[in-house]
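Supplementary Methods, section 5.1.

A reviewer requested that the exact input to the structure prediction be made available. We therefore reproduce it here, unchanged from the version used in the analyses.
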Amino acid sequence: MNLAAVEAPLLVLLLLAAALRWPLAGARLLVEMTVVQNASSIGAFCLDGSLPAYHLDRGFGAGAGNWLLQFEGGGWCNDVKSCLERANSRRGSTRLMNKWEDFSGILSNNASLNPDFYNWNRVKLRYCDGASFGGNALFDNGTSLLYFKGQKIWESIILDLLPKGLGTARKALLSGCSAGGLATFLHCENFSKYLPRNASVKCLSDAGFFLDLRDTGLNHTMRNFYRDLVALQGMQQNLNEDCTAASYFPELCIFPQYSLKYITTPFFVLNSAYDVFQFHHGLVPPSADLRGHWNHCKLNPAECSEQQIQVLQGLRISMLSALRLFYEYSSRGGMFINSCFAHCQSESQDTWFGEDSPTIDDKTIAEAVGDWYFGRRNTKEIDCAYPCDSTCHNIIP
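The structure derived from this sequence is encoded token-by-token as follows.
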């Protein structure tokens, strides 16, 4: 037997295995979908009745006992018409979703791209309920059937992950972007109850700090939208109980500015002070700008008039005001509020941790989150007002 002939293909296989585990910088990591086959036993269904799903990339080495869960984002549906449309799209049905997801940014398994969480078990929870994983209702008019079961979807995924190692996690981080960032506020306290008492459990919301503010037409566009969402999808029962008990308007506890003070689990708020979703849909929704005076400003901040910039500075002031008590009194909380026109900055590699990533005081988002999670230093970073930050990636849809 030619020993060299045997060793050569074995070496190739070992090198291939290593490449899959530790990819080269820039290589894509595609992770296959896992459908929760027994989700129906607790009544967990997407809008169209399909089963919930997630993507799991296993941790390794020192991170094998740690878990990072990331809620997928993607807006909401707050009436039957929009939910029926959503049920026939990838936002409302796992049947119509991509079966492989690209893991980058905070989900990357490359130490040079994600230095603190690369070797953790990393999970993306697919979003198919249209209510930030928070509803528990059913719509059936005899013709159309819609499952508003986001809360059950959350529970079914957790129950599926617990015997896969989540139940014995040493460290855990619940995160999410946009509607998924809002889901992090909704489920942070509940998440910690599933895990061992001695586990280090923390939560991170990226672009999920949606404000209860008046738009430029002096209307409560976001408040009215969320009220309809809460009522339609039966969310109020799943909002923070301490918040709803203390509020004259319990449905408003969907807004993080009202519920955050009741969250005892350590929390990190990552947001742009000029979040483009809130700018385009909350501050200046189409209904408040029928003549399109804001069109050029929305596409390019450099095209904004002096008066429009003043309105945008008001958005920043509103966000900082809503976060003031958290900034001053939360000893275990963290913040990174930059002045970029962006929405979601943790899942994109160039904004999470790259050569020219956005920074505050020379600290990238990944470094700020890592410093906070591991207690390396106190991290509450607030950027100066636009247009002072030259490191921004202004991402305008």
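The domain at 28-382 is CATH 3.40.50 (Rossmann fold). These observations are discussed further in the main text.
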